[in-house]
């Protein structure tokens, strides 16, 4: 399917793909990323596109590019007040904030500083303490979890990711993922040898509250099986999945959509 064709974006993928084009490995300059994101938002597949993500250290460049669409800023621990001040005047929709050692203190800081209407995803370390997710549960914030990066060690195992997803499900805590989810189906990158999670695998696992089942879904490498499983989801199951797994950052908006098209999971309108 040509992505330029008008298509219906199924509810399961609406707003799923946050635009992380300026982050590695894409590293697109903001001067190019802003018009590219505007084009995505005007395209036939616009319903699938989440906000443009930008790091705190590029806020001056972002302001100069004068985006007319919502943006989300990624912020290291301890720099929230600085980020909010630097983002003044931008159409700020949210922040992605790295949690400090005390997640409850991070929540209190967000409560005190975030303006009305600005959301937050709180990045927890992969070795998060047991009470980290408890501190986020019941708040207006999501968790954020890294599913890859630029080294082998940056990729959690299927068991580790399943444990996180089920722990969030037990707490009814929504989350987003970031890094490594370049394609729909779990695969081995031929260039690096790294094992990449598939975003369809993660979506399906998000609907499970059983760790063994979630692990099995994350490990599946047969795209046809995953597509069949997705097509058999009920409306209730799809809603449950997206209330849990809200989005993921991707350097390319086209790649995940092209994968869905190849699997027969996008439709012409």
What does this structure look like?
The structure is a single chain. The two termini are 12 Å apart. This protein has 269 residues and is of the alpha/beta class. Helix 6 (158-171) crosses helix 8. An 8-stranded parallel beta barrel has the order 2-3-4-5-6-7-8-11, surrounded by 5 helices. It has a two-stranded antiparallel ribbon with strand order 1-12. A two-stranded antiparallel sheet has the order 9-10. The chain is built from 11 helices and 12 strands. Helices cover 39% and strands 19% of the residues. It has helices spanning 30-42, 59-65, 80-86, 103-113, 130-136, 158-171, 199-206, 211-219, 223-231, 235-244, 254-262; strands spanning 7-8, 17-19, 49-55, 71-75, 92-98, 119-123, 142-146, 175-178, 187-188, 195-196, 245-250, 267-268. The longest helix is centred in the middle third of the chain and has 14 residues, at 158-171.
Quick structural gist:
It is built from eleven helices and twelve strands.
Total beta-strand segments: 12
Quick one: biggest sheet? 8 strands, parallel, barrel
Please give the radius of gyration in angstroms: 18 Å
Helical stretch tally: 11
Oligomeric category:
single chain
Class from secondary-structure proportions: alpha/beta
Principal-axes shape call:
globular
Strand order in space, largest sheet: 2-3-4-5-6-7-8-11
- Please state roughly what percent of the residues sit in beta strands, choosing from under 5%, 5-15%, 15-25%, 25-35%, 35-45% or over 45%: 15-25%
Termini distance? Answer: 12 Å
Unreliable spans: none
Give, in order, the helices and strands. Answer: EEHEHEHEHEHEHEEEHHHHEHE
Helicity level, as a percent range? 25-40%
Summarize model confidence as the mean pLDDT: 94
